[in-house]
Every structure is written in structure tokens, then in C-alpha cells.
Amino acid sequence: xxxxxxxxxxxxxxxxxxxxxxxxxxxxxxxxxxxxxxxxxxxxxxxxxxxxxxxxxxxxxxxxxxxxxxxxxxxxxxxxxxxxxxxxxxxxxxxxxxxxxxxxxxxxxxxxxxxxxxxxxxxxxxxxxxxxxxxxxxxxxxxxxxxxxxxxxxxxxxxxxxxxxxxxxxxxxxxxxxxxxxxxxxxxxxxxxxxxxxxxxxxxxxxxxxxxxxxxxxxxxxxxxxxxxxxxxxxxxxxxxxxxxxxxxxxxxxxxxxxxxxxxxxxxxxxxxxxxxxxxxxxxxxxxxxxxxxxxxxxxxxxxxxxxxxxxxxxxxxxxxxxxxxxxxxxxxxxxxxxxxxxxxxxxxxxxxxxxxxxxxxxxxxxxxxxxxxxxxxxxxxxxxxxxxxxxxxxxxxxxxxxxxxxxxxxxxxxxxxxxxxxxxxxxxxxxxx
Length: 434
Ligand code: GUN
Ligand code: ZN
Prior knowledge:
Blueprint: E1 2-12, H1 16-19, H2 21-24, E2 25-36, E3 39-45, H3 46-52, E4 57-60, E5 65-68, E6 70-76, H4 90-103, H5 108-124, E7 127-133, H6 138-150, E8 155-158, E9 160-161, H7 174-188, E10 194-196, E11 199-200, H8 208-220, E12 226-230, H9 234-243, H10 250-256, E13 264-268, H11 274-283, E14 286-289, H12 291-296, H13 304-309, E15 314-316, H14 328-341, H15 348-362, E16 380-383, H16 389-397, H17 401-411, E17 417-422, E18 425-429
Parallel strand pairs: 1-4, 6-7, 7-8, 8-10, 9-11, 12-13, 13-14, 14-15
Antiparallel strand pairs: 1-2, 2-3, 5-16, 16-17, 17-18
Helix pairs in contact: 5-6, 6-7, 7-8, 14-15, 14-17, 16-17
Bound molecules: guanine and zinc ion.
The site of guanine has 11 residues, from helix 4.
Pfam families: Amidohydro_1
GO molecular function, one term: zinc ion binding
GO biological process, one term: guanine catabolic process
């Protein structure tokens, strides 16, 4: 049966970084999306969509904006309960807050409980796809994928590989990381809507043998994404230099072990040398921009516009729990503010594209999600433009679609996320009892 949702609608016609904001934005005052089963079959102006599907059931959104579900291309579900940890930069923050919490995920029940909490939070914020780091324990990956599958979400993620410079109970070995990751790929990759991401945490926590094992595993499973961290913090970069004095730089270590190329995703990528910037672009590596985290941990500012202009795919990410918010509105706002500090004002179309289609491209799932387009899965959000008094006042005064989008970026929170659909089914309704 075909169902049609009718209301103001936001989608993208192109990449705004190459086409410009105006050409990239598809805005329909009276729009509609027709959904059959899991997928979108038609999108456009309501009269056209309705006449293309006579007999379909038509539901009005009551003025709520129909938009693509947000895609978060880098975060850590095991860090859900350590969001808002005070006073530390990256390496101290990992040792003080992160590793002790991640150690708890040896307990399958604890992992399952946090996975439920995590997806409640992401869905409440309109994030329909996440790409998460799990802990070194295979139980934590199982909990993540099991919960996602119970909710029928499209997700990516993987077991963190880490065999040094972390507490013994969190460390694996090169061989165990390889074996357990390979078993998880067999169990989860391509099952229902799951993608397995090969996940060496970052250079400081892997021996050369483990990085080599990660490279070998990725060579055997090239359709899996490979995610890790790159040049987030100056002390971290100093440590990498100490551990690998013969490599030209941080990215060079990943290059040496076959961990770069299409499908690789580097979180942060802030303090890059000119060689690293060129190598990122040449190899086809992608970047996950984590602006709330970069601010919160005092890491620095990613040059989004510069990297994107050199051809590096970029997506937007909350990086919870280094990131301070599960909200993609907060994250887009932080990306805007990061740009402002660098003298670059990213338009609301650019910001929103990064949080949807941009992230989907980074994960190489843009055939499935990231935009409202015929053939893609019906992952979408209904946004209440009048969720709070200030939002109502500001959106009522907006003259253009871009003004409405920017008002949402700056002023909206989860109160504006009224309804969330995944694969053609409603998976969250604000205020509904679960
Ligand atoms: N680098 C290595 N691990 C982490 C992590 O968990 N969070 C952040 N923000 N950076 C990292
Ligand atoms: Zn991270």
C-alpha cells in the first residue's frame, strides 16, 4: 500500500559545496513524499505526487517540515553515560572518564541497557543512522547491532581494536582483534540494515602488528568502512610522533598499514600538515567533522571548507561522548560557529547537507539514506517549526527556506523532533509512551 505524507518538505538536489546553496536546496512549500513498504517512491510538489498515486492514503503533517533523517557518521555509543565529563583534554579525558566506562561493556546486560538508552536518545534527536565505535568486547557490538535490528534501523559500527596504552582489561591483541572483528563481520555485515565498520581506535592504542592486522582485515573486506581518529589534539600527535618516528606524520602511519583509501573515515582531522591534507584527498579518505567535541575537549577547529574544496568527502558527527550533545541541531550550530571562527560562514543548506547526505556519502550508503529521493529508504523526520515560543516567533518571521533552516539550526532541540520514520515505519513520536 502506498502512503503519502503531505507538508512542507526539504531535500537536496546537489552537493552545495560544488553547486552552491541555492541550486542544492529542494524546498517544497506544499510537498509530499510517497512511501511504499520501506522505500520512497515519489517526492515533489504535493499535487504531482498525489496525482501519480491515485488511491494512496494521504496524511497531512499539519505544517510540520518533512526532512531527511539525520546521519551521524562518528560517535561512541558506549560513552552515552559519560557525556558532560569535566575538565580534561583528549588523552586525560580518555584515561579518566572513557576507559573506565568502556570497561563495563564486558557485561552483556550493561551493554544492552546502554544500547537501548542510546537509540532512544539518537531517535529522539532525529538521527536515523549512526556509525558507532563499540568497545573491544564483542558483546558491545552484539548489543549495538541487536538493538538497532530490533528497531529495524540502518546503522554502521564496529568493535574497537586496541592493544596498548589502555587499561589491560580493555586491551586485546593483534590476533584477537582480527579474529573477533572477522567473526563480527560474518555475523553482522550486510545483515538486514547493518554495516560493519573495521575500527582500530587510533594510532596511540595499536601496536604496529595490530595496525597491520587491521589493514589485512580491511583488504579482505573492502566493502566495509574503516573508521579511526586522526590529528585531534596536539599531545596525541606528539605521542604518535614518539611511537612512529620514521613515518612522515600521523596520516602517514595509516598509509603505511593500508588503512587509507575510499571507505576510510577519519574523525576530527584538525591539525594537518600540507602533506596530510594532500594525501587525504589523493587517497579518497573521508573526514567526520565533530564540532561539539572539538570545542568541548578544546581540540581545535577542522578546516571543513578547505578539505571539502580539495575533494575530501565530509560528514557531520556528534562524537558523543567527547561531543557534548546528541542533537544534530547543536552539531550543525557548532559547525557554523567553527566556520565563523575561521572566517567562513557555512550556509544552512551546507550545514544540513553535511548532517544528512554528506554523512551518508562518507559511509557509502547514499543509495539508501541521507536524502528524500525515489528509491531511497524512507528514513525521515517531521520537524515542528513552532515547538517552542522563540522558534515559533522566529520561523513565522522567516522570509526564505534558508532562514527557516537556520532558525532551526540555532534554536531547535529535541522538542522540535516531532516524529521519526525509519524504513517506512514510525520509530519515534515525541511524547508517546514507549
Ligand atoms: N581518540 C581516540 N579515542 C577517542 C574517543 O573515544 N573520543 C575522541 N573524541 N577521540 C578519540
Ligand atoms: Zn571519536
